C-alpha cells in the first residue's frame, strides 16, 4: 500500500510539473506585453525596458519558468501587473468562494443522483423508473447558466425567497452563507446530478445482473437487502470515477454560474484578468484550477482502495 501511495504521489507531482510547463509556455506566447499593461500605452521605450527588467521579462524563458515555479512552491504567485498587489492574496479570497460553491453543489448533486439513480435502476420496467430516466436526460440537456437564470426569475425575483446574487462571508454565519449559496449551488449541482444519476443507474443495473447478487437472493435475502448489502459497494467504483470527473467539470462550470449570480470566485477572477491582459494573474488562476483537478484525481485513486479491498491486495 505504501509503494502504491508513493507511486501515485510521484505521478501527481510529475503531472503537476508538466502542467505548469504547458501553462507557462502557452501563456508566454499570447500576444501582449505585461510591462505595457502595467505602465499604459503612453509609456516611453526606456520606461518599458526598465519595467521589463523589474518584472524579469528580459531573462530567458527557462529562467522565468524556474523563477515562477519556485515562487509557486513557496505560495508566491507574483504581483499583478494591473493593481501591483500580490496575486496570492486575491487568489485565496476568490478560491474560498469557488470552493464553497463547488463543494455545496457536489453534495447536492450526490444527494439527488444516488437515490434517484438507484431507484431508476430498480424500477426500470415501471412508469416511475422510466419517468426518472427521462427527467435525468432533460437535466443533462439544460445548461447551468440557463438553470441559474430560471432560478433567479422564480425564487429571487417573483417569490423573493433567496437573493439574486452576492456573497456572504463564512465569518458572517453559516445560515447567511447557505442562504446566498442556495440558488447557485442548485443551478450548478442539479445539472451535474442528472449526469451522475445516469451513471448510478447504469452501475446498479450492471451489478444487479452479477452472479454474487443472485446467490445472495438465493440464500434468502430480499432483492432490496441484497442490493444494499452486496451490490451498492460494487457499484460505487464507476460512480466514484464519474463523480471525480464531474467535480472537475464543476470547477470549470463555476465560471459561468459565478457570473450569473455575481459571485467573486476564481471564474470571475479569470475572466477579469483575461480582459485586463494581466497574464501573471491568469497563470496563477489557471494553475490553481489545474492543481485542483489533479488533486481530485489523486483523491479518487486513493478512495478506490478504500472502497474495494481487492485493489489494496493488488497494490500489495
Shape assignment: globular
In the CATH hierarchy, the architecture of the domain at 97-306 is Orthogonal Bundle
Major sheet attributes: none
**Number of E-state strands:** 0
- H/E element order: HHHHHHHHHHHHH
User: Which CATH class of the domain at 97-306 applies here?
Assistant: Mainly Alpha
In the CATH hierarchy, the third-tier topology of the domain at 97-306 is known as: MetI-like fold
How much helix is in the residues? over 70%
Count of helical segments? 13
Radius of gyration over C-alpha positions, nearest whole angstrom = 24 Å
Regions with little confidence, pLDDT below 50 for 5+ residues: none
Kindly name the structural category: mainly alpha
Percent range for β-strand residues: under 5%
Quote the distance from N terminus to C terminus: 5 Å
What is the arithmetic mean of pLDDT? 78
CATH superfamily of the domain at 97-306: MetI-like
